[in-house]
Amino acid sequence: MKLVIKAINVPHPFPYQGSKRGIAKSILSYFPSDVHCLMEPFCGASAVSIAAAAYGFAEQFILNDLNKPLMDLWSEIIERPSVLCDEYEKQWIEQQPDPKTYFFKVRNEFNKTHNPYQLLYLLARIVKGSVRYSSDGQFNQSADNRRFGMKPNTMRQNIFGVSALLSKKTIISAVDFRQVVKKANKNDLIYMDPPYQGTSFTRDHRYLNGLYYEDFVDALSYMNELNLSYIISYDGITGEKAHGKLLPDSLHLKHLYIHAGRSSQATLLGNDHETIESLYLSPSLVCRLESKKPSIKQHVH
Q1: Is the pTM value of this prediction over 0.85?
Q2: Average confidence (pLDDT) over 113-139
Q3: How many domains does the chain have?
Q4: Boundaries of domain holding 296
Q5: Rounded CA gap, 292 and 126, in Å?
Q6: 3-class SS of residue 130
Q7: What is the DSSP string of 171-237?
Q8: Would you say residue 91 lies in a domain?
């Protein structure tokens, strides 16, 4: 069932904590061969869609996230990469005399304007790509003052690379994930990387909008009734610590595990713990895969 995929160089537009860039190839190995449209209702850094486009695993894409400034940035990345890169380079140069003061200036302005050019600069500068929002929705993460952020030429290469992969085949939206799911049909695939349990309803939010476990389970039950194919990254284990409870057996999901490497949080704390992430496959996807491949076995790979 699991495909063996050769490694290729896949561009990424900005660092983003929680991005599945490091395990995207492993996730792609559970894609069926006939995906028309790949939907990411919680896209974030869209690592799986970018990888799927690079490997030719889908024809069309829907990128969605309730974080509208982030989706405005995605529109710029895909449709107006030249202007975006020029604006990033301008900010990168302007920061040089005093990067720390400049960062706070840009952050204050972004919280008023939600300008996508400013968001790209902030994402390039923040600590470990770790986005944080206050309880009233203000971007409040600090800069990594040891670094200036991705160099303009490198940023340009990545942005233009992503634009080339997704331009003219991608729809951008900033709506509730359930609205995206309603558009799916049997030839599509939905990849979901929702806010993990314990990361949303805290004093400093990792995500602009949280998601309650019960609401997510209800939505998955609805998706099963529609026989939709979906993959979920949800919860996991770091060292001996489990993050959140498993999705319920009543959903009849196939539960797999993926080694995600050393966690960014462990790195920050000076630990050497590896993260193992849960991957869930919907019943319809399992049937779709088993019609062409040997039976699925639960495993750690």
Answers
A1: yes
A2: 93
A3: 1
A4: 1-255+265-301
A5: 44
A6: coil
A7: EEE-S-HHHHHTT--TT-EEEE-PPPTTSSSSSSBSSSS---HHHHHHHHHHHHHTT--EEEEEEEE
A8: yes
